[in-house]
Amino acid sequence: MNEGTSIRKVDALIVGAGFGGIAALRTLHGELGLDAIVIEKGSGIGGTWFWNRYPGALSDTESFMYQLPFEHELYQRTEWNTRYVQAPDIRRYLEDAVDHFDLRSRFQLETEMRAATFDEASQTWLIHTDKGDFEARFLITALGLLSRMNVPNFPGLDQFQGRIVHTAAWPEDLDLAGQRIGVIGNGSTGVQFMTEAAKTAGHLTSFQRTPQYSVPARNRSWTPEELAAFKATCQDRWDEFSRVKLGFGINEENERKTFSVSEEEREAIYEWAWNKGGPYTFCNETFSDLTTDRAANEEAANFIRRKISSIVNDPETARKLTPWEMFARRPICDSGYFEIFNQPNVSLVSLRDTPITHFTENGLVTSDGQLHELDVLVLATGFDAQDGSYRGLDITGRDGRTLNEHWSEGPRSHMGITVNGFPNMFMVLGPCGPFVNLPPAIGVQAKWIGRAIASLVDIPAASIELTAESEEAWLQTCRNALQGSLYLETGSWLFGNNIPGKRQVTPSNFFVAGLDSFIATANTEADNDFPSYHVHVPSTA
Ligand code: N01
């Protein structure tokens, strides 16, 4: 703790000013009337959308489902004019939400949490930040699922004299027009970035390790009639998400199996999805077995492979862009990604064929000896996801046990919210939470946290803690739901495979049984007075 400085006491300290922090603040301050504040490392509100300002950043969820849930007032004010929303619009929306609910004074920006320790005597959390210390009865960590950048350790990277930027720390002053840009990473971020940057780059080179499947986004403006209809039916739509698996705003009732239809019909269905656009349309509105049946997966993968070869003019470039692994990562959509490789100012280097050997002051050298001269290197290399957001923090719970010790075999939690040994600490989007559209998940978790805290506020100094048995049972629930998922077999950030040395345990870090099932579990727990929890009431209370 900071010596000699005063400690600010609050009922609840929320860490992170993205969707999660704002939703938690709305519940804890707006509904329960607690003295709750949000601290945030960045200089503005928006979380993920504050940091990821790279050109082309876009949400790929149907926009009417990409909002703070349960905020019907906001829904009526918000003019989401397009099918998918761009990062600046999302930042404006969250800023507006904060002002609309008169919450601005509850945010302390440019304040980074460094450590948090549970004090058993007072049953409170002592939180250490770079701007002073806090004492809070409740600690809510809304750190984001994807917030800790992955910066690979390329040999000689520090020699490079050009600009190096990670897409999740995008600088305001970078003008890419006319520049020689090298991009490492072609996940959702890299694909969005390259498609946009190729419009003005002097030359853009994609240094690609693994080719990925991508389908057209087909972003477009909503018609005034569509917009009016969304507003008129907003209550129904939000109610609907408690009955669906993913909550991305598409039709998820599809039970059709890939091989239940003829080849011609199958092709027509893929073609319909390709033309409608959107990753979840392609993966969830076509057939129901894409992520569980290897042959079905291969059928969809082949369709996209054929599309790539029909779009990309140069056969060798098309070959390099064509994925061979299963179509089982977090799906991607684009606004003309494969098309940019037909432009004279865009080229592709397959790092499978010619890996990077080292950097020089002018660029990078690949194993064929070629020096690729660059002005700007863009690292679209993703994140140390989920528990990665927590690993750099010093969080100590009951009995002096740290979170890193508790998670030494991999992250553990209940519903991505609570952890055994960490009383009165609640995560938003922590590990072992639902794999769904995030705003609905955030809303459900924030409401649940509100109910758990409401059950305690009248008992002075009481704390609530997940039992060890319930934590283990939840991991088993997550493991069971993951059985048979092809996602498990294809390495990606979803299971930590993207971070060298990240410990692999029996994967249980996502709950994939669906939003409907998650909501039912959360409600059952709260309706039955939190049977998975122990409430500790100090004898003096
Ligand atoms: O990160 P990623 P992301 N050498 O991990 C490459 C969400 N999101 O930021 O495939 C060379 O997917 C790596 O290569 P490989 C969304 O959930 C949403 O793109 O491991 N390359 C890969 O190409 C998404 O899934 C939206 O071989 C290296 C890339 O870097 C998640 O964020 C938009 C490397 C990382 O891809 C993460 O997406 C953007 C190395 N040493 C993001 N290390 C929307 O809503 C890594 N790579 C649309």
TrEMBL record:
Q: Where is the secretion signal located?
A: none
The answer to keyword NADP applying to this record is: yes
Please give one Gene Ontology molecular function term for this protein.
Answer: oxidoreductase activity, acting on paired donors, with incorporation or reduction of molecular oxygen, NAD(P)H as one donor, and incorporation of one atom of oxygen
Q: Which domain of life is it from?
A: Bacteria
Could you tell me the keywords of this UniProt record?
Answer: FAD, Flavoprotein, NADP, Oxidoreductase
InterPro entries for this protein: FAD-binding_Monooxygenases, FAD/NAD-bd_sf
| Entry annotated with the keyword Flavoprotein | yes
Q: What is this protein called?
A: NAD(P)/FAD-dependent oxidoreductase
Gene source species: Mycolicibacterium hodleri
Q: What is the lineage of its organism?
A: Bacteria, Bacillati, Actinomycetota, Actinomycetes, Mycobacteriales
